[in-house]
Task: structure prediction
Amino acid sequence: MIHVEAYFDDATNTVTYLVADTATQQAVLIDPVLDYEPHRAALTTQSVDTILADLRARELTLTWVLDTHAHADHLSAADYVRDETGAKVGIGAKITEVQKLFGPVFNARDVCASGTVFDALFEDGDEIAFGSTAIKVLHTPGHTPACVTYVIEDAAFVGDTLFMPDYGTARADFPGGDARTLYRSIQKILVLPPETRIFVGHDYLPKSRDEVAWESTVAEQKTANVHLQENDEEAFVAMREARDATLQAPRLILPSLQVNIRGGALPPAESDGQTYLKLPVNRI
Result:
């Protein structure tokens, strides 16, 4: 049996999940966040340190840090958590496509588009040993080419593919994204048992709701997701593409991508010993 603890990051509207196998006290951490203040380029670890303190207080052993994709809206704390705990870092195998897309954008010569900065790259259908249970990997691209969903017992951690039913679905206009592919990935999630718990990667608190939320079910997504009610692929693609055309780039897309294609690590220090994040002009 698993226990899921959620941590909401107000600065990026991101939800990080600490999932514990109660039989063995092993745990995995999904989509951890580094604190980044863009006006001063100030990077801290306060949020993820709070989670690690909880991990230690509960005497859990962290075995994996799992990112659902290379996020464009927050910096991953995966590399930091690996250094602090010895846990392995995993992500979907198609991260190599994202590295190929964005490595040149930042002239990131240290980035080898082979995913070697991660300890494991997961393919669709892979199973990851986890305590007394296992984590099943579903490749669910569309938002990005590398998006995966992690299914652990009755829980599915879907990243940005689905949001809460009253908010809808992920954008699909990033390089390598595709609205039609997104629709088909959503169908892979919705064929899971109706009682399957859906844990989303973000909540942006629509006006109809007073409190942030991150958990629904497959049944609720089918009956109430505002972007899926027509149950028609062509209608979804038209809606998603029209909506995406109105959206601005995420506030932290530039620092996030150049860190996240490195597995949460910063770029190498330059000759003065200082680390720099780049702002490639007119490239995004």
Remarks:
- The mean pLDDT is 97.
- The two ends are 44 Å apart (CA to CA).
- The chain has seven helices and 15 strands.
